[in-house]
Write a structure and sequence with these properties.
The complex is a heterodimer of chains A (310) and B (380).
Chain A (H helix, E strand, L loop, with lengths): L6 E5 L15 H5 L4 E3 L4 H13 L3 E8 H4 L3 H8 L2 H4 L9 E6 L14 H5 L5 E3 L4 H13 L4 E6 L22 E4 L4 E5 L4 H13 L4 E5 L2 E3 L3 H11 L2 E8 L4 H13 L8 E5 L8 H7 L3 H11 L5
Parallel strand pairs in A: 1-2, 1-3, 3-4, 4-6, 5-6, 8-9, 8-11, 11-12
Antiparallel strand pairs in A: 5-10, 7-9
Helix pairs in contact in A: 2-4, 8-12, 9-10
Chain B lengths: L9 E7 L6 E2 L4 E7 L2 E6 L4 E6 L6 E3 L5 E5 L7 E3 L28 H10 L17 H8 E2 L12 H19 L2 E9 L1 H12 L9 H15 L5 E4 L2 E4 L5 E3 L1 E2 L5 E2 L2 E2 L7 H17 L2 E2 H5 L3 E5 L18 E5 L3 E7 L2 E15 L5 H16 L5
Parallel strand pairs in B: 4-17, 13-18, 18-19
Antiparallel strand pairs in B: 1-3, 1-6, 2-5, 3-4, 5-7, 6-9, 7-8, 10-21, 11-12, 13-16, 14-15, 19-21, 20-21
Helix pairs in contact in B: 1-2, 5-6, 5-8
Classes of the chains: A alpha/beta (310), B alpha+beta (380).
Chain lengths: 310, 380
């Protein structure tokens, strides 16, 4: 907002309320109602407005309150944002950034708790990012604004309260590659966003058993960083994909398929998935916890495929 | 694990002389291996960079088991060569495990374990799996590649001399069973050769004096050049002619048994170099520090039992070679020269040859060639 006057923020409750997760608190006062715009409750309308503004040369940041509500805007996303460059033979660019909350864990029940980023990762023509660290949240927003095409950023609602060091002067980093958060030899835990802390916690537990787990943060869900995935599994020979999406047709399934295609002869055990149970995410705390990937579930799956270490 | 003799089945890796990342050149000694024939220095057959060590010191592994992966420098694509000596790139046919037929029940073997098993020449379907649902994992394969060390205690521990007899026995049995030997022999007048030798030695220091054995070896090597047919191996039902002449020399060991290390390119060495090579081989054979190529490269073997007082040796061919030459003692005998009986130093030279590879006619030409060379010692 400071650096480029073409940038503006638009979405439900982003102005007076400061954002459902307080991401834009204070921005209305600083930048005024022209650039921090509250919208009616119509995802299709304000995502469409963002697409139109981007087509006209602006750099809109659209905040959708949660991925659950973004389904109302899927038509704008799939039929316009993702398709217009292709359909215009490259004449139209849509430099749009869409941010939205995703994931469960806060007892917000089925209509506010789903992880549907995989639906977006299915669509050619857009890019999909998922920060798990404070620095990545900032770097991904900058990278999204610099990208000539629509970039969707999925922010896990369980991470909004997380704290970390932020280098605000860091040059814009390209967050398109996966990154090893913890090096290990016996198994690769592949995670992103809200699942990353769970994978790291599982790796910590496993280390007490002598199992040395590598943790790979995908960061970019489309396009997937196949080279880093394959390289890690070529070292560890085993992989567990942790994904808060439902198991069937999940991003974890896509990652598994990539590993089968690219690392088959390096695999010493079947690729495993730890995903959400195939139910609408429950409200009750114990049921919600049971439905989601948890460090204990990850540890249990790893024990099945990594022989016990003395 | 190179084969250092036809009957060698396994060897123990004693020590690595290289580390991963190290650069090696063809012929460098990269490891020390303990075999039935003692400690052998293993030479590398390719140049490149040691990418991975596969077998750790102390492990006994079967012949043909890759010991390390060397990335050849020419191979920019990262294609790896493994440390199988040339000519043994494929496992020996008799060692190839029977391909399992496709049955209703297929063993669970992980893709990595399958790949590793192929590299190591192991039939993974025969292994017990330790992975999930009993699947064979790479760890199971690598365990199987390591032949369990002979128990430190118990009645099965063989003294080296016993092992060596067993190995020699197996090689000789195979030779007699598989190779249709035929024998030729001739008596060679060494008068001219020994006279020439005496004259040649008169001008030399004691340390550089030549022995008659050097003349015999050189004559055999040059004889092979004239009849290269005998410088061959019988492999998979066909003759494979060998370009280089590497002369194996039978050396008896003090503890019993014998080895026949090769003098590389013996036909190109002058007599002095040949003498030095023999002396060096005998010393190293008895000290147990022969090189792997010396044990595996011989193309014909010479045995000389003259010292032991016998007239004639009828040798058994050392597989996979196709011929062996024996010399008895050099002794003065009545000999007819130009119509008169005179005393001349003579030696019985005999040849055992593989009838699959050659015939009596050609073999006789070889023996006659050796004799002709010895009559003209200056040509040696």
């Amino acid at each position: 907002l400071l650096a480029d006057e073409r940038v503006f923020l638009i979405g439900e409750d982003v102005g007076k309320y400061g954002g459902a997760y307080a991401c834009s608190a204070g921005l209305l006062e600083e930048f005024g109602p022209e650039r921090i715009r509250d919208t009616p409750l119509s995802e299709s309308a304000f995502v469409g407005a963002g697409i139109g503004a981007a087509l006209a040369g602006m750099r809109p940041i659209v905040e959708v309150m949660t991925v659950n509500f973004s389904l109302l805007a899927l038509d704008q996303v799939v039929n316009n944002a993702a398709a217009l460059r292709h359909m215009s033979g490259g004449q139209f660019a849509i430099p749009l950034v869409v941010r939205m909350a995703t994931g469960a864990g806060r007892q917000l029940a089925a209509q506010h708790s789903h992880s549907l980023e995989n639906w977006y990762a299915h669509v050619p023509g857009i890019k999909v990012l998922a920060p798990a660290r404070v620095q990545d949240a900032r770097d991904m927003l900058l990278a999204g604004l610099e990208d000539p095409d629509p970039v969707f950023i999925f922010e896990h609602q369980g991470l909004y309260a997380s704290e970390g060091e932020l280098d605000d002067d860091a040059p814009p980093a390209a967050p398109w590659r996966a990154v090893v958060r913890r090096a290990g030899r016996h198994v690769t835990l592949i995670a992103y966003g809200g699942s990353l802390p769970k994978a790291l916690a599982a790796a910590e537990q496993l280390s007490a058993e002598g199992i040395d787990a590598e943790v790979l943060d995908l960061r970019c869900l489309r396009p997937l960083d196949k080279a880093s995935l394959v390289a890690s599994v070529a070292r560890t020979h085993r992989a567990v994909v942790v994904d808060e999406g439902w198991r069937a047709g999940s991003l974890a399934a896509e990652v598994s398929a990539l590993l089968m295609e690219g690392a088959f002869y390096d695999l010493d055990a079947p690729v495993q998935r730890v995903c959400s149970e195939e139910v609408p995410i429950p409200y009750a705390r114990h049921l919600e916890e049971a439905a989601l990937p948890q460090p204990e579930k990850i540890v249990g799956v790893v024990r099945q495929i990594v022989p016990p270490r003395g | 694990m190179p084969s250092l003799g036809a009957e060698m089945e396994r060897g123990r890796l004693v020590e690595w002389r290289v580390r991963p990342g190290g650069r090696v050149r063809r012929g460098d000694i990269i490891a020390e291996v303990e075999t039935d024939k003692g400690l052998i220095d293993v030479e590398v057959f390719a140049s490149g960079v040691v990418e991975r060590i596969l077998i750790e010191p102390g492990n006994m592994v079967a012949v043909g088991t890759p010991l390390a992966v060397i990335r050849e420098e020419e191979a920019a694509t990262g294609v790896t060569g493994t440390s199988l000596p040339p000519g043994q790139a494929a496992p020996q046919p008799e060692r190839t495990p029977a391909q399992p037929t496709i049955a209703a029940w297929a063993p669970r073997v992980s893709p990595l374990a399958r790949r590793r098993a192929r590299e190591l020449g192991i039939d993974a379907s025969t292994l017990r799996g330790s992975g999930a649902d009993g699947a064979v994992t790479v760890a199971d394969v690598e365990r199987a590649a390591i032949v369990p060390a002979e128990p430190a205690t118990g009645a099965t521990l063989e003294p080296p001399a016993v092992r060596m007899r067993r190995v020699i026995g197996a090689a000789m049995l195979r030779s007699k069973r598989e190779i249709p030997h035929f024998y030729l022999s001739t008596t060679i007048d060494l008068g001219p050769a020994l006279s020439w030798l005496a004259a040649a030695n008169a001008t030399r220091d004691v340390s550089r004096r030549l022995l008659p054995g050097a003349l015999l070896l050189k004559a055999v090597a040059l004889g092979l050049r004239e009849v290269p047919e005998l410088n061959a191996r019988w492999e998979e039902g066909a003759v494979r002619q060998l370009a280089d002449i590497h002369l194996g020399v039978a050396i008896s060991l003090r503890g019993g048994g014998l080895v026949a290390p090769a003098i590389h390119h013996a036909d190109r060495l002058d007599l002095e170099a040949l003498m030095a090579a023999v002396k060096d081989l005998v010393e190293r054979a008895r000290a147990g520090s022969l090189r792997s190529s010396e044990l595996s490269d011989g193309t014909i073997t010479v045995t000389s039992l003259g010292d032991r007082g016998v007239d004639t040796v009828l040798p058994i061919i050392f597989p996979p070679q196709a011929a062996m030459v024996g010399f008895g003692r050099v002794v003065e005998r009545p000999w007819v020269v130009e119509g008169s009986v005179v005393a001349r130093p003579v030696v019985h030279a005999s040849l055992a040859a593989d009838h699959r590879v050659s015939d009596g006619h050609r073999a006789a030409r070889f023996l006659a060639g050796v004799e002709a060379r010895l009559r003209q010692p200056e040509s040696l």
